Fold this protein.
Amino acid sequence: MPEFSNLSMVFLLLCIYHQGAFAEINLNILNNCKNIQELMGRLRDGEFSQTCREPNGSLEESLYKKAGSSHSDLCFLEQNPAVGLEGFSCMLISSEPKNTIFCMRPARASDINEYKEKYKEKYVATALDYLKGASACPASNGNATFSVATLQPILAALISKDQFGFIAPIGKGRKTDSYVIHSYSITALNDRQVPDAIEYIYALSHGKFPDQQDVRTIEVGNWKIEIDDENFSGVMNAWLMQQPVPARAKSIIFSISNDFASNSIDEKNEALSDISDQIIKDLKSEGFSNITKNYFTQAKKEEIVKALSMSSPIGFQGRPMGNINPDFQILVNEARPACAQNKEGATGVYIFTGAPEAGIKSDYGSVVFSAFGMGECAKFARTSTNIYLDGINDIATDAVKSNYENQ
């Protein structure tokens, strides 16, 4: 065994400790049912020590300064509130009710970037298994899903920018008053002494579930239809910009759920097919017709789904696009609206159906509908074009609603 000087040995041990303090991409928090239940129970009942300590290390000190440099603003807990938070620094915002807690530990930007770059080929199955495990926990409502940047808690936002994450609603019902977020962020502090990334956990007990921007909910009996008018349009338009013919789209994601029904996977998928068929029937009465199979082969359709998936945010590459049936429908209208005259433009639609998650009883899948204009009809400055495409999206909305009104 080689000999080391005392100084060399100390340096080696410091290096080992330093490396060990950084977490790789570990998807083992939300699916640890026992630990999550203990954390949420203690947070709910206030059964944990709230004694504050001084910030320790460059990461904590940076956050402490950003939060106001006072224990009256930020309390670093002397003891973590529950098992499973080893290696994390946990803290409370002193001025807020003690029903939220934020815990963080250093991570590596290189690990985060590798996860993002190789998500489709290496990590998507692991991520979906993680969500299924979290959804199966007794404390969960069964709807663990990918988090989004708009849910990033204020303490994380002070020092970092979210890259990907997961959220597990706690309680019963589709929208609960408690949840846990597990996420990874890149720090933005321009300080070499501070780790370039963090892994964090944020838990809220008996508060307000965060509302998604640009998403509204329609209730039809026990059926809930979340309508996202905004977030897929950017993905679709990013892909359309790469095509040889100018085109722009207005897109909607209809996410369907029911906490009380117990349909089989086949029945759920059959309902999605019925919706697609009804939309096609209604659009044909407006003068739309199907694109021939010779133009859009199955291989071409699979290529489109893959391209759209790669344009989606991390996590959402798996859902809804990862569950999309590649045998989607495309229709065009070369006569309406006015921009289609003289064959200088046309309108069209893509109709995708997204399979429900097999392990989530309340999930009934999604319909992704995208109305687009080509050529002259891609100029959305035309009021007539905007009104027409909005009307086409209304046809899709009515078809989705009517399908569940009849059940």
User: Anything to note?
Assistant: The first helix runs from residue 6 to 20. The two ends are 75 Å apart (CA to CA).
